[in-house]
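Continued from yesterday's entry.
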Amino acid sequence: MDIFFKDPNEIPLPPEEVRLSALKAEPWPDGRRVRIYLEVDPFQKRPCADLIITNAAGEEVARANILETISRKIEINMHLREAEPGGEYNVQAVVYYQKLPSVSEESGPQESLEPLVVDRGQTSFTISPGS
C-alpha cells in the first residue's frame, strides 16, 4: 500500500526509524475530557500507538489504542474515568508496529508476537479540582 503525504520534502521512514515528534495534552474546561495531540514522523508502514493517562497515584484513568493510522497527525479526546477528576496527570504514548505471524504449513499453536516498539513519549497536565 502506498502512502502519500502532502509535503514532497517529507521522506517516509522505515518502521525502525519512525519517531514520535509531538505529544500534547490539553484538558477541556469541564475537567473530564482531555484533548491529546500526537504526531509521528512520515512513515512507509502505518504505525500503531497506545495512549495511557494516569493520575498522581499512578492509577490508569484513560486508555486509547490507535491501530495502523493513515495520518501522521492525530488528535483525539479522552474521557477521564474518575468520579472527581483533579490534580496532576501523566500521558504516556507508545508508538509501535504489530508483528504479524508468518503463514506456515502447520496450523499448530501460534506463539504470541511482541510488538516492535519504536518510540515512547510522555507529557503531563493539571486539572483544577472542581473544574
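--- second protein ---
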Amino acid sequence: MSAAERPFAKLLVLDLDETLIHARDRDEPPLPWPAQRQVARYHVHLRPGVREFMSSALQRFVGVGIWTSASTEYATAMLDRLVDRRRLRFIFARDRCTQVWDAEREQTYWRKDIAELHGFGFGPGSILVVDDKPKGLECSHANLIPVRPFEGDPEDLELPMLRRYLEQLGPLDDVRQADKRRWREQFEDEDFDLDVS
C-alpha cells in the first residue's frame, strides 16, 4: 500500500442531522424536492454525495464515528441503508451530550465534549469533528470543521468539497493547528460531480 493510499491515523466524527441528512416529520410542510427515503414518520433527504463521502471516509480514516444529539433509536434508523454500521467505531447519541443553557439566547443546546472520545486511542490532535452547530463544540473549536446546515437542497456541494479538504487535513500531525473556519473558500470555484442517489 502506497503512502497516498494508507489510511490517516485520525478519528473522523460526523454529526447526522443537517450534516449528512435532512429529516422532516411527515406533519411538516414538504420541501420542493422529493425525499430519497421514508424512515418511520420522517421524509429523509440525503445530502448530495453522502454515499461517496462515507465510503471515502471509511477507507481514508482509521476511525469514523457518528455523534448526534438525537436519540440512539433515531440515529440507528437513519443510518440503516446509508452505511454499514459495523464499520463505524461508534454511534453516540444524546446520552453522550450535555444539555447546556444559553442565557444570551434563552434556549438550551447540546454540547459534545471530545473528552468522551479519548477511550478510542486518539489524542486531541488526531480528532476531527464535522458538525453544522459550532456552539455544541465550543470547548473543542480547534477540532471542528464547521459545515453549512443541509436543508434538502439537491444542489448542495458541501460533502464533495469536504471530502477534498479532508485529504489536506489527514496527513497533519496535529489537526488543531489548521484554521478550519473558512475551509470551503478554496473550493467554491471548482466543479464537483454530485451523487444524488
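Residues 54 and 83 are 7 Å apart (CA to CA). The two ends are 30 Å apart (CA to CA). Will compare against the first tomorrow.
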